[in-house]
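Morning run. Coffee first, then this:
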Amino acid sequence: MDVKPPKPAPAKTAAAGYRRAGAVAPKKPAEPGWIGRMLARVPPLLPSSCALCGAPGRENLCTPCHKRFYTRQHRRCIQCALPMPVTGKELRCGACLKDRPAFDATIVATDYFAPSDHLALALKFGGDLRLAPLLARLIFDATLRNPVPGSEVRLAMPALLAPVPLGLARLQERGFNQALEIARPLSRLLEIPLHTQLLERKKETQAQSALPVAARARNMRSAFALPFSAMDQVRGLHVGIVDDVMTTGATLNEVAIVLKRHGARRVTNLVFARTLPT
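And here it is:
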């Protein structure tokens, strides 16, 4: 649902080591009735299997797969999240230093290669919506990690979350927006309000994956806008943008340009997987 963003408050240092910039805890939801409590117990009792190895269990990702693929920590550029050499004091990669993106930081759960790409593809093109909460949980885990191991770097958490919007034609074709499906459970985990319609897509664009790298920024130019009703809702705020995969960053950069144009103070991307340069 749409939540009117709170006024930003002074940043504080969270116990997990990240500053929460203006984050306001949502109102406590009403206690569920007996039917809701009963239904809440049903999913763990149903047969399930690990989405990666197929091992039976109650979780969509078994403990061995989680440990093997999602606990290793790389040193990453704090702005675009590409892996960086272990040595060195610079926090940004050469590309971000040379041509700084409009967004300020990126948090990713993993790199986009096997088997993590299977999870993203199964959600996006396979319509396996049960994976959205899993991807959200892995992004949440990433927010608790230091992007530069061994340093004192701390990334502030946003005050408001919003998904990258889909065009109407693609939304009708797919039936859902994978970024929104991830953003809903992530909002609950982070206790950060979610504005589901903060952004709108002004034009249908070609699939980024079908275009050469040089054409992707041009493809996304002027693709996004803030609805009139939301134009004053980002001024001075730190906004978090949720997406499933970050390839070149052209889409997220265009989103950040629009948000900064309307007064957003800071933009952080929260993404499941980051594509590595070839």
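DSSP finds ten helices and ten strands in the chain. Good start to the day.
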